[in-house]
Amino acid sequence: MARLTIDRAQKRFGSYLALDHVSIDVEDGEFLAVLGPSGCGKTTLLRQIAGFDKLDGGAIRIGERLVSSAETHIPPEHRKLGIVFQSYALWPHMTVAENVAYGLTVAGVRDPERARRVAAALDLVGLNGFAERRPGLLSGGQRQRVALARCLVTEPSLVLLDEPLANLDVHLRAAMEDEFARFHERTGTTMVYITHDQAEAMALADRIAVMDRGRLLQLATPSLLYREPANATVAGFIGEGMVLPATVLSAPQAGRCRVKVLGLEAVVRCRPDQPVTDGAKLCLRARDIGLAATGQDGLAAAVERLSYQGGHFRLEARPACAGDTLLHLDANEPAPAAPGDTVRIAIHDGWVIPDAGALREVA
Amino acid sequence: MSLADTATLRTRVEETGLLWGLVGLVALLSLLPIGRLVVEGLAPGGQLSATALGKVLASPTTWTATWNSLVTAVSGTVLAVLVGGSVALLATLTDIRARNAFTFCFVLPLMIAPQVTALAWLQLFGPSSTLLKLIGLAPPLGSRNPLYSREGIVLLLGLQYAPLIFLTLRAGLRALPKELIEAGLAAGAHPLTVLRTVVLPLMTPPLVAGIALCFVSCLGNFGIPAFLGIPGNFIVLPTLIYQRLAGLGPGVLSEVAILSLLIGIIAMAGILLQDVMMRRRDFRITTTSSAARPFELGRWRRPVEILLWSFAILVLALPFLGLLTTSLIPAFGVPLNAATATLGNYAYVLIEHAASRRAFVNSFLMSAGAALLIVLICVPLGYFIVWKRSRALRLLNLAAELPYAMPGVVLAIAAILLFLKPLPVLNVSLYNTVWIIVFAYLARFLVLGLRPVVSGYLQIDRTLEEAAQVAGAGLPRRLVTIIFPLVAPAAVAGALLIFLTAFNELTVSALLWSSGAETLGVVVFSFEQGGDSTYASALATITVLVTVGLMLSTTLFAQRLPQGVLPWRD
């Protein structure tokens, strides 16, 4: 087991900064997800940790060992880590058992020890009986399991997973998600899991690092990430948050303050050091707002679209006072309104996004 | 900690060592011979002098041969474009049946040695044609074989290299998005109008590339003008070089070096002209999509099929039949019938004749050895070129093309210049041994092996290698256990191309052979020059059968090949 320390990592491709001073500390045995849209730099980061590319600045340490910096570069074959590739990367000219045994053979482990460990690894992923098959004859889920067995058979201290579920169909994903979680529990290995799927990241990770355009936006537990996004990008990316301009009217009290948003006053969550300002940004989730009860203060809005989500409706409405904003909220059956109707929307909760200067430290 | 550092150091030493070893090897095979030749042209015998240059340039023979070379190369290319171009359009764009079989037959002449093609056509015509005698159509004795002429050379060059145009054009047509054709048709244009205004203009780049390749091949061809031109005293540059060197020995080396530079310069001019033409207009195709649906020929389908196949039979089956019939008669001029037919010629060339027996062994071992060595060079070479994107090697990738783009005599003369004196330090002489031929094969055919391997690498998911790297395998181990098995089909295809080309080759070995180091091409050539057409035909028939057999054997692993690495496979 080992901790992974990424310290102000920098990588350039020509004039493009693919990694811009990214710092992440992964604790020993932690399951970290790196989340972001395609092109955000998460794959670049994985290739730096693995050692496939050279770093332009900063440093990466596995355990106490410096593996990457502008001057030092330990090649991947000497980093003693495991990777599960998105494409699985199973060698088509070898059987399942030969695929799994490869790392042991390279490390000089010989039969019967090698055969015993291969059998144990295949047993662990539920593939005993498949040892002599060729990877080409396996289903997607089975290939994924072989890749996992191959990666874990050498007991690496750090395992990198590069969108391992992206090529599987939906119901198989859920099963493999469970598999990864159990694995992590059983082996206690430090895992770095690259994904663009936030549901996957939320379900599996101890902490999530959100990246965009080569920068680390926020590093926090899934629940903190959802409840208290550090900036507007994270707020919008995670959980479809709506980001609205707001005025903070009162100093925080017990983690809450009074704000004015879209002409409506509401009490929302905020940081204890949130200053009173008229340039704040408010993050609202669908469940933070709802249709106003009779007599309650509300925001007049025109319903634009109503879509049935199974059990409830997703309602999209445009406030009368802000024509370029579209709010979405959930409403129970039966349908409370029809497109074109005017409804009144109440704000129950929300989060004042800390201003940009403070957000780096939130991690 | 220090243990890890030594391991890292070892990895680095292994990788850079391998890289620079390859750089050195490719430079040795491609840059050194051409460089040596240029030096000889400027400073014959090591001293800066213009005497040899003046002597060569003042000789009228030089200019007659140059003119003849240009005329036959240009006319041969024109013929190849007409034949190969129209066949490519018909066979690719229309709905004719049995396309694969036709492609195989049409491309076959390219894989058969030019001297064998020449020999076969010679047996077909002329007063002694066994085949014409068989059907009573032979011209009267004493009349001249019409192929011993400039026109004969042009005809055979055109037919030999029409497949080159066919292949480049077909590859271009396949990459043409169907929308471009369909948009033209939807606009109300007749298919022929679409062909003239859309398809042909967009086919300019492959056509120009094919023309350049064809021109260089015609210019450097030795087998056809040697068989058809020397008897009629119609001399081109490659045959002039051969005659000078064979008649006067290494003493005229400086002069022939200048002659071969002259061919090299003409070849380069052809390639540069292609480059200039390509830059004048924008031919980029912006969309990508599936290949065009073939035009339906309707009631014209059968006539077109009959036309194509009769052409294939005419240029393929008839000459081979001429070769076969000649190989079965006891002596040249004897008519073939049940009483005269004999396998004696085959027995003679396979068993009795020592040089011919040796040639089989030599050609087989040298071609197989060259193919094997080139594959062993190309697999790591392709790795650095494609995956490591090594800049030094990408430049050398271009350099590797040079010995193949240059006419074969140029490389042969360069090899003689390099090895005439014993190797320094080792004090071993390669001259007059098989090794000088092996060196020339390695240099000349390196690119034939490299191209399929590079396209093989481009189609392999690199994470397969990265997975092995993460598992702790160093580069040598990855090359052996992961990379080589993955590129093996492409490498085998390349090896086969090299083997077939080298096995049938004459241009290089005609200048480099020595007693004991004969090749099949050389023996066929000397049989024919000595008037032993029956032996030459028997030997040539055997090489054709071996070639076709090996080509057909590729169907066994064709499924695992990247598309387009074997010219005769669709």
In summary, what is this structure?
Chain A: Residues 4-238 form the ABC transporter domain. Chain A is an alpha+beta fold and 363 residues long.
Provide the residue-averaged pLDDT of chain B. 83
Q: CATH homologous superfamily of the largest domain in chain A, by name?
A: P-loop containing nucleotide triphosphate hydrolases
Determine the strand fraction of chain A and express it as a percent band.
25-35%
In order across it, which strands form the biggest sheet of chain A? 6-7-8-3-9-10
Tell me what portion of residues of chain B adopts beta-strand conformation.
under 5%
* CATH architectural grouping of the largest domain in chain B: Orthogonal Bundle
* Low confidence ranges of chain A: 356-363
The CATH class of the largest domain in chain A turns out to be Alpha Beta
Largest sheet of chain A: 6 strands, mixed
Find the structural class of chain B using helix and strand composition.
mainly alpha
Structural class of chain A: alpha+beta
Termini Cα gap of chain B: 55 Å
Radius of gyration of chain A: 24 Å
What is the helix/strand order of chain B?
A: HHHHHHHHHHHHHHHHHHHHHHHH
Number of domains of chain B: 2
So what's the CATH class of the largest domain in chain B? Mainly Alpha
Keywords (chain A): ATP-binding, Nucleotide-binding, Transport
GO molecular function (chain A): ATP binding
InterPro entries (chain A): AAA+_ATPase, ABC_SmlMolc_Importer, ABC_transporter-like_ATP-bd, ABC_transporter-like_CS, Mo/tungstate-bd_C_term_dom, P-loop_NTPase, Transp-assoc_OB_typ2
Family (chain A): Belongs to the ABC transporter superfamily.
